[in-house]
Design a protein that fits this description.
heterodimer, A: mainly alpha, 2 strands, B: two-stranded antiparallel ribbon
Chain lengths: ~70, ~900
């Protein structure tokens, strides 16, 4: 399983994005006593960012063949 | 409340089902249709990461500290995003080296060291004990909750025999032993186990989601309802957010990093992700499937936790909320499902972890010791497979027993997640040596051992021992004051570092010590040969230049290798493996396998699959004379290379020589053709020369026959012509024979000292009658030093006569004058014969020395010689080491000169021999 060079770089970039999303200060920005449709912002942000990463990961790896 | 018998029979039924799944998978594998060879099953098997910690513990953790349970799942997601770099490399290295466990991996990286393998095993076993205890606590806890109706009793007070955890431990041990050590595999891969664990992962996910849905939508009115109620509750509102404060983010990040590392480093994760991996390409899809699984199983954790806090009083165990909900609301079947889900989470973890650990204990701890100290006794055992299996069974039992002991000693003081994190911190100690070894060549065995040792020691001091202390097994002073009462050594505020939670604190100090020792000690000396060689195999695994040559330079035959391998794998499996290898090498049978280094390497990797790389090396070394790449080996390899270079140079030279020879041959051929043409010319000339006198003899004879009345005077004149022509013919033939002899070198030479003055006088005397006839004046000018030369006297006389008679032929009768002069020129003695004839044209001066060439126009003037005199003379002079040439100006006469080297010693003798006249 050798990823093409571009896929490889995308994954590294995604990793860095993940590190930024789950870290101070971005975490602090979304860590507020607000809610969206009754769901707390912190909860929404963490699961949303997480899901985003997974979807991006799936897209990148599954299209890595191109 | 559920009756105990129902729970027990449900649990047994579930375990039976697992057995069936495993059996089915192994059956299919035997038929060549592997059930686990697809990315989804691979990803599900990786979900063994989610244990009862996730299943029960996360809820408990979330009910106290809100969403801060999440980093344990975010970390693995980040690690899997980076999978194309780290995981893929680990996978590739492990496959190339037939790695059987994480201990094997690390030991192999640092030169196949027993010491390191053993150290990693000890750290792993001790480090994992709390984790095992966690599973026991969770399962027995869930049992107690269901039987007791949601309120747990205190196990610490109960006797062992009344403790459900003890029975859980015993049942787990029995089940794992039955399940995991039925037979010994050549590759340490367990199709059945992987299938069962994937099945477990499905069950626990379904059960947990069922419970989550029930709580969120059955008990409450969805997420919004739960969160809204929580927001109104001042106790619960903080749980919806991360706790504020800088050190809280520090804890969050530390947990993320910790789980990033452990998702690779936990022995069971390594086992399932690396060792049990069927195909490298499965990792591609698992890279996102596994994080997706983590996300899904965590969605309902916070709602259940907050819901539990909203519904139940403080006395309820938050770790058991997921069970308490259905039980309290009378959904006992759902409660049973949740119980089974929890059981599946626990069994999956215990099976995978203990099998991985028992492999490590057997291969990297017990076998090396046995091989070292019991080698004799082992040699007497023909089949060691049973011994290996028993060691593993013993190891499984012991690990579960120790896990239970830890549970009894320290389990009560902690919630589930806290116990698990203790293990995480221990396992994280492998990170520097493993990841460092994967990307850095400089790591050495002492460095790795120092790093692991230091990290482990700090972990023991700051995390494990305090966990006993908190349970009351150590004096409270230890916790309050630090060891020896030194405040700076406070176990959880080391060097006064306060404000971090205990996991972050331990992680910080232990990894600092670990990395520091690893790097510092590694840099004390350059890697030795074994370390450098393994470093290349690990760091450069993707480089195509790394040939998997193995480090055996000694060859061995299959007859030697099969017995040693079959002692560990059993004869049938060994035969089968060698047969396959023979097939792959293109040999019809095992006997045909060439006894080479490749075969030795194959046997080593085969054995490594069963007993680990370090032990395999020792075993193969016992039958194969060990010859790792030594200086001589390197020299041999270099030698080969230089020989190849030498050969190519030789070839180059040979082709050049061939070219030269071809050129020479071409030249020689040209010369041969030339000579052939010259021979033809010569023959035609000779026949022409012979025919001229013959023609005149014939014509005169015919005249004499035709006219019998011819008068006597005419008759005499004609007979005279016939005689002279015959003489000429004879002379011609003699000279030709002479020339042939000279040219072929067959002429006989009798070199004697000859006085040139004397010779000149004698020669003149010989030709005098001929010359006086034409009234030619001859003068001899001798040299006063009487030069002597070493020549054949008769031949030199022949030359002199020839030159004199030639001169006589060309001078005018009456006025002709010939001067013979003997003189010296440096070391040469010279004789010149000068006449006053017509001279020779410059263009003819070399020509006259060729055969049958004469001066002047041959066509117009009658030839007066044979045309062979001068060529013969030149041959004689040159043969005697001298030179013969002519100097002439047309109309002023010609001067023939020859020079010969003087012979000094002979000259002295000659003075006596040839007295001055």
């Amino acid at each position: 399983m050798n990823f093409p060079r571009l896929t490889h770089q995308r994954l590294v970039a995604l990793f860095l994005l993940g590190c930024a999303l789950f870290n101070y200060p971005l975490l602090a920005v979304f860590n507020r006593a607000l809610d969206f449709l009754g769901v707390p912002l912190t909860y929404l942000y963490l699961f949303g960012a997480w899901a985003l990463l997974i979807v991006a990961l799936a897209l990148i790896t599954e299209r890595g063949r191109l | 409340m559920l009756p105990g018998w129902l729970l027990i029979s449900a649990a047994l039924a579930y375990l039976g089902l697992l057995f069936a799944v495993a059996h089915k998978a192994e059956q299919s594998a035997a038929q060549g249709r592997s059930l686990i060879a697809n990315p989804a099953v691979y990803a599900l098997s990786l979900a063994v990461y989610c244990t009862t910690w996730t299943y029960y513990g996360s809820v408990g953790r979330a009910s106290v500290s809100g969403i801060s349970f999440l980093p344990v799942y975010l970390g693995p997601t980040l690690m899997f995003i980076l999978g194309s770099v780290v995981l893929r490399k680990i996978l590739r290295v492990a496959k190339a080296n037939r790695i059987t466990s994480i201990a094997d991996f690390i030991a192999s990286r640092y030169g196949k060291s027993h010491l390191l393998g053993g150290l990693v095993t000890v750290i792993a076993v001790i480090g994992i004990l709390p984790y095992i205890a966690l599973q026991l606590k969770a399962v027995s806890g869930s049992f107690d909750v269901l039987v007791g109706g949601g309120v747990r009793g205190s196990q610490a007070a109960t006797a062992i025999l009344g403790d459900s955890a003890f029975y859980v431990a015993a049942a787990m041990a029995g089940f794992t032993i039955l399940f995991g050590t039925r037979h010994l595999d050549t590759t340490e891969r367990h199709e059945g186990m992987v299938a069962a664990i994937a099945f477990d992962s499905v069950i626990k996910l379904v059960a947990f989601l069922a419970a989550g849905m029930y709580v969120t939508y059955g008990v409450f009115n969805g997420f919004g309802d739960i969160f809204a109620q929580a927001a109104r509750d001042e106790r619960l509102a903080p749980l919806l957010m991360l706790p504020a404060g800088g050190s809280q983010y520090g804890n969050w990040v530390a947990l993320t990093i910790l789980s990033m590392l452990t998702v690779v480093l936990l022995p069971r994760q390594f086992q399932l992700m690396v060792v049990e991996n069927v195909k490298e390409s499965h990792l591609r899809r698992a890279l996102w499937l596994f994080p997706a699984y983590l996300l899904v199983i965590n969605i309902f954790v916070l709602p259940i936790a907050i819901g539990g806090r909203l519904q139940f009083a403080e006395g309820f165990d938050a770790d058991a909320f997921v069970l308490t909900f259905p039980l309290r609301h009378g959904h006992e079947m759902l409660a049973l499902l949740v119980f089974i889900g929890g059981l599946s989470a626990a069994t999956g973890m215990v099976i995978a972890e203990t099998i991985a650990l028992s492999t490590m204990v057997c291969n990297d701890l017990v076998m090396p010791i046995l091989l070292k100290h019991w080698a004799r006794r082992l040699e007497r055992m023909p089949d060691l497979t049973q011994l290996l299996l028993n060691i593993r069974r013993g190891a499984i039992g012991l690990i579960l027993l120790l896990g239970y002991v830890y549970f009894r000693l320290a389990g009560e003081a902690y919630a589930l997640v806290a116990i698990g994190l203790v293990s995480f911190a221990a396992v994280a100690q492998f990170a520097p040596v493993l990841l460092g070894g994967l990307f850095w060549r400089g790591g050495t065995l002492p460095g790795a051992a120092a790093g692991l040792g230091a990290g482990f020691a700090v972990w023991l001091y700051t995390l494990l021992i305090p966990s006993f202390a908190k349970s009351g097994w150590l004096p409270p002073d230890y916790m309050d004051r630090g060891i020896f009462g030194i405040d700076l050594l406070h176990p959880q505020q080391l060097f006064g570092l306060a404000g971090l939670d205990e996991i972050t604190h331990c992680l910080l100090w232990s990894l600092l010590a670990n990395i520091g020792a690893y790097v510092t000690v590694s840099l004390l000396r350059p890697p030795n040969r074994a370390e450098a060689q393994q470093a290349t195999l690990f760091v450069d695994v993707d480089s195509h230049t790394v040939a998997r040559r193995g480090d055996w330079l000694t060859a061995a035959s299959s007859a030697v290798l099969i017995p040693i391998v079959s002692r560990f794998l059993g004869p049938a499996r060994t035969r089968e493996a060698f047969q396959r290898y023979a097939g792959a090498r293109g040999c019809a049978s095992i006997a045909e396998l060439p006894a080479d280094t490749g075969l030795v390497h194959f046997a080593e990797t085969l054995l490594a699959g069963a007993i680990g790389s370090a032990s395999a090396r020792v075993m193969i070394g016992s039958v194969v004379e060990e010859a790792p790449i030594s200086l001589d080996g390197v020299m041999d390899i270099l030698d080969e290379a230089s020989q190849v270079r030498a050969y190519s140079r030789e070839l180059e030279e040979k082709s050049k020589a061939l070219e030269r020879a071809t050129t020479e041959l071409r030249v020689a051929n040209t010369r041969l053709l030339e000579l052939d043409r010259m021979k033809d010319d010569f023959i035609s000339t000779v026949t022409h020369e012979l025919r001229t006198p013959l023609t005149s003899i014939r014509a005169i004879s015919e005249l004499l026959v035709a006219d019998p009345r011819m008068d006597f005077a005419d008759r005499v004149r004609f007979m005279g012509i016939v005689m002279s022509e015959t003489e000429r013919l004879t002379r011609l033939i003699n000279q030709m024979l002479d020339l042939a002899k000279l040219e072929s070198g067959r002429a006989e030479w009798a070199a004697v000292p000859v006085d040139l003055n004397q010779l000149a006088d004698e020669s003149v005397a010989t030709v005098m009658p001929l010359l006086s006839e034409k009234q030619i004046e001859v003068a001899v000018v001798p040299d006063p030093t009487q030069p002597v030369v070493l020549v054949d006297r008769d031949r030199l006389t022949q030359v002199m006569v020839n030159l004199l008679s030639n001169a006589g032929k060309f001078v005018e009768a009456g006025s002709g004058r010939i001067t013979v002069r003997v003189y010296r020129n440096a070391d040469d003695a010279r004789v010149s014969v000068t006449d006053n004839g017509p001279g020779i044209r410059p263009e003819d001066q070399e020509l006259i020395f060729e055969k049958f060439r004469q001066g002047g126009d041959v066509l117009t003037s009658k030839p007066s010689g044979t045309g062979l005199g001068l060529p013969i003379s030149r041959q004689i002079i040159e043969y005697s080491g001298g030179r013969l040439w002519v100097e002439s100006t047309p109309g002023m006469g010609a001067c023939f000169i020859f020079s010969l080297p003087c012979h000094k010693q002979v000259q002295i003798q000659a003075r006596g021999e040839f007295p001055n006249d």
